[in-house]
Amino acid sequence: MSLVVQKYGGSSVADAAAIRRVAARVVDTVRAGNDVVVTVSAMGDTTDELIDLANEVTTAPDPREMDILLTAGERISMALLAMAINSAGIPAQAFTGPQAGVITTEHHGRARIIDVAPGRLQRALSQGRVAIVAGFQGLNQETQDVTTLGRGGSDTTAVALAAALGADVCEIYTDVDGVFTADPRIVPAARKLTRITYEEMLDLAASGAKVLMPRCVEYARRFNVPVHVRSSFSGLEGTWVTDGTEEGDDMEDPIIAGVAHDRSEAKITVTGVPDVPGSAARLFEAVARADVNIDMIVQNVSATNTGVTDISFTLPQASIPAAIAAIEGDHEGIGYAALATDDTIGKISLVGAGMRSNSGVSAKFFAALRDAGVNIEMITTSDIRISVVTRDADLEKGVKAVHTAFDLDSTEGEAVVYGGTGR
Question: Are residues 270 and 392 in the same domain?
Fold first, then answer.
């Protein structure tokens, strides 16, 4: 008997018919001889609707009360799914995140899981029940307040439960058949990957691939949890995310795992920064105090006759107000002349472990963008990733051009997106 943790996203439990379909899949897994724990997201667009409702009530929702509100979406899903499974003749019991033993930090809206005490889940399993857990939420033990984990938190919940329970696999069900070499909404000829390493998947996720969230992959890598990304709308084998050391696995890996893109970032340029030691430190210390995550950084070489330089960096669009306020609040200390924002950028990333041992990857990547007429504004690299910032209007043609240049296009027809969101 295996222990299987399954996670179903919002599109997989979008309505009553979808919930019954998920229940049937869970029942089949149980009848195949497995113990099953299920993590669910809120139905469809419930979370967005709750956020909109809160913003209609007040322009500044209290973070604590917001977390209490948003956890309602997953509670609805877990209860309905437990009812559906029970009606199919398999005993099931629903648990909130706190009831399931998910312990978090106290940061409302972006808490991190620090421990899982799965005693109640283990008792339910020992009684022959399916345990249904509300994803995206947990409890801070010091404040005794419910917290939420941020977007994609249900993925992280599922992997954390799998690690704590010693599960044989964590199945992440979504509305595509697995991890593809590019977003199939942008590149219909994208190819499904059979396997991908934690390292590659982490870089793809961090670069904008939305099929898995970075924190989920990071947690799986840390505790070596095998993740199987599958579609809840088909019975096809999906993509396995592992450490890449499986016995008998053909690990003569392709050079490139995939092409990711991201439209959610913006760029801030701080001009006239004194080109002296400590200037960059003061700038980014101010941004850090505002709790803003920074992605790419470029500093221009200063002209010898001016003694000043320009520094550009990218960050989430939602963080622009906080970053600007922090920089302007330390204007005198930083000593800059002006700052400008740009929210019409896009990021294209090429990811593959094979880059380490293959020359010419960068040349082919930049040549593909050149031939597609895509101008590059910023560049950053790691040993398995190249990322560039372009104009948002050029993003799609750039992704398609790079995908084709590296022979990633499938010859087996277009990829299917069942639910339309990729989650």
Answer: yes
User: Do 260 and 372 share a domain, yes or no?
Assistant: yes
Residue 104: CATH number of its domain: 3.40.1160.10
Structure tokens at 219: 């947690």
Q: Are residues 272 and 407 in the same domain?
A: yes
Q: Does 411 carry a binding-site annotation?
A: no
User: 200: phi > 0 → left, psi -120 to 50 → alpha, else beta; which?
Assistant: alpha
Model confidence pLDDT, tens digit, residues 311-343: 999 999 999 999 999 999 999 999 999 999 999
CATH number of the domain within which 310 lies: 3.30.2130.10
211 is in an annotated binding site: yes
**Domain co-membership, 419 together with 301:** yes
Domain C-terminal end among 149, 174, 199: 174
The answer to whether 174 is a known ligand-binding residue is: yes
Annotated ligand binding at 9? The verdict is: yes
Residue 8, annotated as binding a ligand: yes
Q: Is 253 annotated as a binding residue?
A: no
| Count of domains observed in the chain | 2
Do residues 172 and 210 make contact, with C-beta atoms less than 8 angstroms apart? no
Both tokens of 99, joined, read 């009831």
Q: Block means of pLDDT (10 residues each) for the chain, length 423 residues?
A: 93 93 96 97 93 94 96 97 97 98 94 96 97 97 95 92 97 91 92 94 92 92 96 88 68 78 95 91 95 91 76 95 96 93 96 86 95 95 93 96 94 70 43
Is 152 inside any structural domain? yes
- What's the CA gap between 180 and 44, in Å, rounded? 22
139: in domain = yes
